[in-house]
Design goal:
By secondary structure, the chain is an alpha+beta fold. The protein folds into 2 domains: about 100 residues, no CATH class; about 290 residues, no CATH class. Helices cover about 20% and strands about 45% of the residues. The chain is built from 6 helices and 17 strands. The strands form 4 sheets. Strands 6, 7, 8, 9, 10, 11, 16 and 17 form an 8-stranded mixed beta sheet that branches. It is elongated.
Amino acid sequence: RENIRTFVYYVENGEAKKLAEILKSIYVKKEGTRRVPAPIRTVVPRRRTATLQRQPATTTVVGGLPGEIAGEISITAYEDINAIIIKTSPRNYLAILETLKKLDIPPKQVLIEVLIAEVTLDRTTQYGIEWLLKGSTNNATILGGFASSPGNFLGNVSEEGKVSDLSFSPLVQSGAFVNVLDPTKFNTFLSLSASRGRLNVLASPHILAVDNKEATIEIGDDIPIATGLTQQPATGTGATTLVSTGQIQYRTAGVILNVTPHISEKNKVTLKIRQEFSSPGGSEKVAGQDFPKFIKRTANTTAIVQSGHTLVLGGLISDKKNRSRTGIPILSDIPIFGALFSTTTEEDVKTELLLMVTPYVISGQEEADMLTRQFQDRVKVIKEKIRKARQKEQKQPKD
């Protein structure tokens, strides 16, 4: 019998507790017995039977080499220092160590770039961006899509371009998703929308996520909401005066994005996405008091995207009324008579929420920093186009 020793392995990339559980399931006895291969039924002399029964069980070590695992094995995780304590013979430890080193490897990471934008729809896009891109002859229902070749979603385009000049190929339905158009054409559409003031960038976050771990992005404000509201007569004032009592809770209004990436060996990324965009939409009277209403748009989906490709989710259209007032300066501000020198107009506006997600499987922090800088530069360009378009609109004379 070999001497039993105690070995300590310091885990570098994973969690000691999880690795210890895996090793126990492979090597440690269960209920006082060890799993052994099924006996080979063959005719042997009676005198050799006892010898065969005393042979130790064999286990195949990761890597394909047969190795003998026998005797006492104790595996314990020490979570405080992220280490695994193994009590066994030196020969057993070498076999276990070979398996452990193949499991304790750095997890893959993915840099996820997100652009969340609202596009104001006009006559050409009143049925949604997807309708424009796929053509009215295609009746496929589009839940989203992914680009067929790499390319960032904020390409360069001249302001002289026109939407009518773009030749979009009809999309072909492929399960729940659709293989999107040529990415450069979609880039052109976004840039044109920005240069015309029809694109509003709501958020452009980026986050570094570990393989198979959920990453969450929340951008917004906490808005107080009254719950459990009741009305009771005020003390000492009689039954005619009611006082509302209840509890105040806070709800996040803005952008909430949950992404869980699963990375394959060939750098294909399966993205499980849950996206929510909510904003206050007026108020509603409850028990004699005004409380905010919320406009909520959500999307849940799973898609497979190659590293560096862009996933586009759209179709979340909302209607709202815009009220504007124009008039003669100074005279339009006079109480009562100001209405004679001003005009108030109401306009129904349709907007579509677009979510563009681009995952990059990265090998180190330097690559992540470089991609982050490039993303920030592209967003800066698109925001500058939006700013110029708004300045141009403000300078135009109003009727």
